[in-house]
Amino acid sequence: MKNVTDSFLYLGFWPSAGSFGFNTDIFATNLINLSVVLGVLLFFGKGVLSDLLDNRKQRILKTIRNSEELREGALDQLEKARARLRKVEIEADQYRINGYSEIEREKLELINATYKTLEQLENSKNETIHFEQQRAINQVRQRVFQQALQGALGTLNSCLNNELHLRTISTNIGMFGTVKEITD
């Protein structure tokens, strides 16, 4: 390390035009070569490097602008999607409410129809019961009448003789004649 610092410190001891040779000190020559190369690169490559950096800067700015435009487009689409979502949610709520009210209406209609059907069945049952009661009453009446008639015929046949029978017939014919004269 001492050789590197010595080579910079003792520049005044080097002859300026006298000799040309190889410097075998690797650290001193690398630093000198590196500083020369960097100096040349900075002097000649400044324009190229500046152009490359400007092009890169322009591409980055363009990408940022495109990203901003895409972001704005995405935000617009997001707002449209949110608006559609709100609209769909409102419609879904309306369908849900309408569905519930429709179900309740149909339920009430079904209950009312069931009550009407039950009422009709009750009326039909009552009519059938009344009809059957009347039929039973009529059958009993017919039997009572038939038994009474048979009893009366039996009593008449046992009590009536021929003479009494003829007198009853002639009296009935006489009454029939009198009724006919009154109606004419």
Task: Show the helix and strand layout.
Blueprint: H1 2-9, H2 26-159, H3 162-183
What would you note in describing this structure?
This protein has 184 residues and is an all-alpha fold. The protein contains three helices and no strands. The longest helix is centred in the middle third of the chain and has 134 residues, at 26-159. The termini are far apart.
Features:
89% helix, rod-shaped, single chain, mainly alpha
As residue ranges, the low-confidence spans are 7-15
Number of helices: 3
Shape: rod-shaped
Oligomer designation: single chain
* Helicity range: over 70%
Radius of gyration, in angstroms, nearest whole number: 67 Å
Order of helices and strands: HHH
- What composes the largest sheet? none
Number of strands: 0
Task: Look at the helices and sheets and give the structural class.
Answer: mainly alpha
Give the distance, in angstroms, between the N- and C-terminal Cα atoms: 174 Å
Mean pLDDT, to the nearest integer, reads 82
**% residues in beta strands:** under 5%
Brief sketch in words of this structure:
With 184 residues, this protein is mainly alpha-helical.
